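Predict the 3D structure for this chain.
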Amino acid sequence: MTQESTSPVTIYVTYSGAANARFDRDWYVDRHLPLVMTSWSRYGLEAVTAFFPAGQQDGTLALCECRFRDQAAVDAAFASPEAPTVMADVPNFTDIAPRRVRAVSL
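Done. Predicted structure below.
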Protein backbone atom coordinates (compact mmCIF):
# COMPACT_ATOMS: atom_id res chain seq x y z
CA MET A 1 0.00 0.00 0.00
CA THR A 2 1.35 3.43 -0.89
CA GLN A 3 1.52 6.36 1.51
CA GLU A 4 -1.08 8.17 -0.62
CA SER A 5 -3.60 5.32 -0.30
CA THR A 6 -3.28 5.27 3.50
CA SER A 7 -3.26 9.05 4.02
CA PRO A 8 -6.36 10.91 5.20
CA VAL A 9 -8.55 12.23 2.37
CA THR A 10 -10.64 15.40 2.43
CA ILE A 11 -13.60 15.74 0.08
CA TYR A 12 -15.31 19.11 -0.29
CA VAL A 13 -18.96 19.17 -1.33
CA THR A 14 -19.98 22.57 -2.64
CA TYR A 15 -23.37 24.04 -3.43
CA SER A 16 -23.15 27.01 -5.79
CA GLY A 17 -26.03 28.98 -7.24
CA ALA A 18 -27.78 32.31 -7.28
CA ALA A 19 -28.03 34.16 -3.98
CA ASN A 20 -31.78 33.45 -3.93
CA ALA A 21 -31.40 29.70 -4.62
CA ARG A 22 -33.20 27.41 -2.18
CA PHE A 23 -30.86 26.09 0.49
CA ASP A 24 -32.28 25.16 3.89
CA ARG A 25 -29.33 25.57 6.27
CA ASP A 26 -31.25 24.18 9.24
CA TRP A 27 -32.13 20.95 7.39
CA TYR A 28 -28.56 20.66 6.12
CA VAL A 29 -26.93 21.08 9.54
CA ASP A 30 -29.56 19.38 11.72
CA ARG A 31 -30.55 16.47 9.48
CA HIS A 32 -28.36 15.95 6.43
CA LEU A 33 -24.92 16.13 8.05
CA PRO A 34 -25.92 13.76 10.87
CA LEU A 35 -27.32 11.39 8.21
CA VAL A 36 -24.00 11.51 6.35
CA MET A 37 -22.01 10.90 9.54
CA THR A 38 -24.25 8.07 10.73
CA SER A 39 -24.29 6.44 7.30
CA TRP A 40 -20.60 6.65 6.47
CA SER A 41 -18.66 6.67 9.75
CA ARG A 42 -18.64 2.86 9.69
CA TYR A 43 -16.72 3.07 6.39
CA GLY A 44 -14.11 5.54 7.64
CA LEU A 45 -15.71 8.99 7.53
CA GLU A 46 -14.13 10.73 10.51
CA ALA A 47 -15.73 14.20 10.46
CA VAL A 48 -18.05 16.52 8.57
CA THR A 49 -18.13 20.29 8.90
CA ALA A 50 -20.38 22.84 7.18
CA PHE A 51 -19.28 26.31 6.12
CA PHE A 52 -21.47 29.12 4.81
CA PRO A 53 -19.30 31.74 3.06
CA ALA A 54 -20.15 35.37 3.76
CA GLY A 55 -21.10 37.44 0.75
CA GLN A 56 -21.27 34.53 -1.69
CA GLN A 57 -19.42 36.51 -4.38
CA ASP A 58 -18.61 33.33 -6.33
CA GLY A 59 -22.10 31.88 -5.85
CA THR A 60 -21.06 29.34 -3.21
CA LEU A 61 -23.90 29.06 -0.72
CA ALA A 62 -22.50 26.17 1.31
CA LEU A 63 -19.45 23.98 1.56
CA CYS A 64 -19.04 20.74 3.46
CA GLU A 65 -15.69 19.31 4.44
CA CYS A 66 -15.74 15.52 4.74
CA ARG A 67 -12.63 13.94 6.25
CA PHE A 68 -12.09 10.26 5.56
CA ARG A 69 -9.54 7.88 7.04
CA ASP A 70 -8.09 7.08 3.57
CA GLN A 71 -9.04 6.60 -0.08
CA ALA A 72 -10.45 3.13 0.61
CA ALA A 73 -12.88 4.75 3.08
CA VAL A 74 -14.02 7.26 0.44
CA ASP A 75 -14.57 4.48 -2.08
CA ALA A 76 -16.43 2.31 0.44
CA ALA A 77 -18.71 5.15 1.59
CA PHE A 78 -19.75 6.24 -1.90
CA ALA A 79 -20.32 2.61 -2.96
CA SER A 80 -22.17 1.68 0.25
CA PRO A 81 -25.80 0.62 0.49
CA GLU A 82 -26.38 3.84 2.47
CA ALA A 83 -25.15 6.13 -0.33
CA PRO A 84 -28.49 6.27 -2.20
CA THR A 85 -30.25 7.34 1.02
CA VAL A 86 -27.70 10.10 1.58
CA MET A 87 -28.08 11.33 -2.00
CA ALA A 88 -31.88 11.08 -1.87
CA ASP A 89 -31.90 13.55 1.03
CA VAL A 90 -30.39 16.39 -1.06
CA PRO A 91 -33.74 17.58 -2.53
CA ASN A 92 -35.02 18.06 1.02
CA PHE A 93 -32.70 21.05 1.53
CA THR A 94 -31.80 22.35 -1.96
CA ASP A 95 -32.40 22.22 -5.70
CA ILE A 96 -28.69 22.86 -6.32
CA ALA A 97 -26.65 19.91 -7.58
CA PRO A 98 -23.77 19.18 -5.20
CA ARG A 99 -20.24 19.20 -6.60
CA ARG A 100 -17.57 16.98 -5.03
CA VAL A 101 -13.89 17.87 -5.12
CA ARG A 102 -10.97 16.05 -3.53
CA ALA A 103 -8.45 18.25 -1.72
CA VAL A 104 -4.87 17.77 -2.84
CA SER A 105 -1.82 18.55 -0.70
CA LEU A 106 0.51 21.14 -2.14
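The radius of gyration is 14 Å.
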